[in-house]
Design goal:
With about 450 residues, this protein is an alpha/beta fold. It has 2 domains: about 240 residues, no CATH class; about 190 residues, abc type-2 transporter like domain (abc type-2 transporter like fold), CATH 3.40.1710. Strands 2-1-3-4-5 form a 5-stranded mixed sheet, sandwiched between helices. Helix 12 packs across helix 17.
Length: about 450
């Protein structure tokens, strides 16, 4: 056991003496997290595509037409899909409940929830009496800019629903007649009644003559009296952590800091990969074969050193998160995430060290692999920027699972059962990585190339 710790602390001392390695492990991740958080502090990021979990509680003709318009939008990907994995149309059309939609949002499968509440169909018939089409959204707090884009899309297709209603001459006449009757019996003041009556008269005139504009006086009067009334009303809220009323993240730091932590872990991976490659080229690992230490002890010593460095960088970044006001939603699971990230990324390091023989290869190939894993795993570009095929490809990257583990314990409010998947994947990276590393180190210590 002492020999394992001796190897681990020797590697840590070398890391602290290497200025470049120290910067990449302990300084760069903080700079990255601060820069990324500052850039997206106000906007929260934006993306070219959104996965929307759709809940249709009305199921009337108007709401079904609205859903059809949303599904036809090239920017929005509506969940649940109408087709199975073989491309066959699912019948009857699948539906989500609010609880199921929120689960998809917490897991990161969806970027937002759109709810068409019951009464959507009836609301279309009250627009002439001050009513509005009611829609609800629940958004991922890390996609604030996307939330604004989504609201614009909902307004666009909501007005299309109203347009379909108004294009029905018979139905519109009935709506106008009913609206006039309600206005006459209401407690509105005379000016408001005049404004609504003028507006309704304009609708009748437009429908009768096919004209495209009314009188300026009527429009101006209606605008002044109706104030902030809008025919489409979208009520939006952010995802609540753990099902309570507290919204998270409260700032962009809660989104960027987990990515900074993962970059710190990757810095540890690269530093130790290069260190082992140098010892491999210099023959140090082969000379260790003459010592009393076994291959397993050497392997565990290298892995332990990397894991300790990973814990240190996570502890440092955790302190930075707390100073910036980041709130951890589940401390016990957060500590588990810290431990499993350290073990998982130590496994990634062992795999790279086992496959790459030279220092030049470690400096070039390892950094290239790390960059690719970061790009497809959301370490540099948030996953919601990427097309769906790349989001699927991201499953091979430890970045994705590291970020998901941190977000799940900081603000997503993921349950222990939901966290089991990223935790299990990180353990899998550790097991596979150590197996690959063991084979590589055994070949070197036995004198093979």
């Amino acid at each position: 056991m002492n020999s394992i710790f001796a190897i681990a602390f020797k590697d840590l001392r070398l890391l602290f003496r290497d200025k470049g390695g120290f910067f990449s492990v302990f300084v760069f991740p903080i700079l990255f997290a601060l820069l990324f958080g500052a850039i997206f502090r106000d906007s929260g990021g934006a993306g070219g595509g959104m996965r929307i979990a759709l809940v249709n509680e009305d199921n009337g003709p108007a709401s079904k037409g609205f859903v059809s318009d949303l599904r036809g939008d090239s920017v929005l990907k509506i969940l649940p899909s109408l087709k199975d994995t073989d491309g066959k149309v699912i019948a009857p059309e699948p539906a989500l409940t609010r609880t199921e939609a929120e689960t998809l949002l917490r897991k990161g499968t969806a970027s937002a929830i759109v709810v068409i509440p019951k009464g959507f169909e009836a609301a279309a018939e009250t627009i002439f009496t001050g009513g509005s089409l009611q829609l609800e959204t629940v958004v991922d707090p890390s996609r604030k800019a996307e939330a604004g884009m989504l609201e614009g899309k909902l307004n666009q297709y909501g007005f299309r629903v109203l347009g379909s209603t108004l294009s029905d001459t018979t139905r519109t006449k009935k709506l106008v007649t009913d609206a006039k009757s309600r206005i006459a019996q209401s407690d509105l003041n005379p000016v408001q009644k005049l404004a609504f009556s003028s507006l309704l008269s304009s609708v009748e005139s437009l429908q009768a003559s096919g004209a495209t504009q009314g009188t300026a006086t009527s429009d101006d009067t209606a605008s002044n009296v109706l104030g902030n009334w809008s025919p489409i009303k979208v009520t939006s809220r952010e995802l609540a952590a753990g099902g309570d009323d507290k919204k998270r993240p409260t700032s962009s730091w809660e989104v960027s800091m987990p990515q900074g932590v993962v970059w710190g872990l990757m810095g540890c991976v690269l530093a130790f990969t290069v260190s082992i490659a140098e010892e491999r080229s210099a023959g140090t690992l082969r000379r260790l074969r003459l010592s009393p230490m076994t291959r397993v002890q050497v392997l565990l010593g290298k892995g332990l050193g990397c894991a300790i460095a990973c814990v240190l960088v996570q502890a440092m970044l955790t302190g930075a998160m707390l100073l910036l006001g980041v709130q951890v939603g589940n401390w016990p699971m957060y500590l588990v995430a810290v431990s499993l990230n350290a073990v998982g990324f130590a496994g990634v390091m062992m795999a790279m060290a086992g496959l790459i023989a030279s220092r030049e290869g470690a400096a070039g190939i390892a950094r290239g692999i790390a960059l690719v894993l970061a790009m497809i795993g959301g370490g540099t570009i948030p996953l919601f920027f990427m097309p769906s095929w790349m989001q699927t490809l991201s499953n091979v990257s430890p970045f994705k699972w590291g970020v998901l583990a941190f977000e799940g314990t900081i603000w997503r409010g993921m349950s222990m059962q939901e966290l089991m998947l990223p935790f299990a994947v990180l353990i899998g990276f550790a097991i596979v990585g150590f197996a690959i590393g063991a084979l590589g180190i055994r070949r070197v210590m036995d004198g093979e190339k």
